[in-house]
Amino acid sequence: MTRTLGLALGLAACLSLGCFSIRVVSGNSVPADRVAAIEPGVTTRVEILEWFGAPEDFTDPSGLRRVFADGVLLPEDVLHLPYADVLVFELTRGRARGVLLLFFNYFDVRVANDRLVVFFDDQDRVLYYGYRNDAEALE
């Protein structure tokens, strides 16, 4: 009987052991070479949309969320949206790893993103922009 109980406990311990690895990518790529080509006062909104596609967000996020709920937003559609004087382009990468043991568990979760925020003047030219490139570390 004790041998059967020991065998059952050993089998249960082996079945509860495991490890996992998960990778998640959300958004569109923000190419650093295209970011370097942005010139304040020269680059237009149309060029930004051609280079980076549809933005993740703009200054009226509730309006953009409504458009996403109704259908697909194309880059040229952004030209006709009100309050679109700031566009945000973002790529987020996440990675999780873990080990599940009987008496010990270990998890390592990392999230990083590339973000480009572009401000436009009243003539649809880039006023200024900000760029952060962190997602590359999680490729």
Q: Which key features would you list for this structure?
A:
139 residues; alpha+beta; five-stranded antiparallel beta sheet; 5 strands; 27% helix; rod-shaped
Mean pLDDT: 78
End-to-end CA span: 52 Å
Radius of gyration (CA) equals 24 Å
Q: What share of residues are in beta strands?
A: 35-45%
Question: How would you explain this protein's 3D organization?
Answer:
This protein is of the alpha+beta class. The chain has four helices and five strands; from the N terminus they run H-E-H-H-E-H-E-E-E. Strands 1, 2, 3, 4 and 5 form a five-stranded antiparallel β-sheet that branches. A hairpin with a 5-residue loop joins strand 4 and strand 5 (126-133). The chain is rod-shaped, with a radius of gyration of 24 Å. The mean pLDDT is 78.
Q: What's the helix and strand layout?
A:
Elements: H1 2-15, E1 18-27, H2 32-36, H3 45-52, E2 57-58, H4 61-70, E3 86-100, E4 105-120, E5 126-133
Antiparallel strand pairs: 1-3, 2-3, 3-4, 4-5
In brief:
It is built from four helices and five strands. It has 139 residues and is of the alpha+beta class.
